[in-house]
Amino acid sequence: MRKDLGGNVRVLPASFYARPTLQVARSLLGKYLVRETSAGRRAGRIVEVEAYVGFRDRASHASRGRTKRTEVMFGPPGLAYVYLIYGMYHCLNVVTERADFPAAVLIRAVQDTSALIDGPGRVCRSFQIDRELNYHDLTSGKALWIEDRGNRIRRARIGAFPRIGVDYAKAWAAKPWRFRLKM
DNA sequence: AGATTGATCCAT
DNA sequence: TGGATCAATCTG
Known about the structure:
With 183 residues, the protein is mainly beta.
């Protein structure tokens, strides 16, 4: 299938990511995560995400400052931030907003045609995403990208909840920055 | 509830 | 340089 024609299907451009992170997070619901390898193409509908916003967000890796690991979060919008957690699992984020402002959205769950892949580590395992894709340009339309397939998501279908696994962030952990698409 | 696993970060 | 920590997942 052509990615830039046929009306509805198109790779999300940098302008999509260059917006306030909470907006980007909600907008990502219903979009399609696409992974292309030599083995073929695989896609899934994004159904759960989490936003990490700015220097002051204590739940964000970037709250500790600009380090080798967090540098990508300070990069231009539309980059992939992929990191290894617990020495075993990878997590995929998309970088948002603007250069020098650290923000990203974690992809927590996608709906395949046959299964729900629930959990950021499972998403990466299922889509063969690892740190080789850290800094990958998601607007390139190669290897890994996100597509708009023209389906509209009504605001009423989006639920907001506290983020997972960030209790150490105290008050910031309570912010309803996890967004999930109701079935 | 406990184990797993290794990169990262910061205090010693 | 050592050791605590970790945006998770699996098993019992």
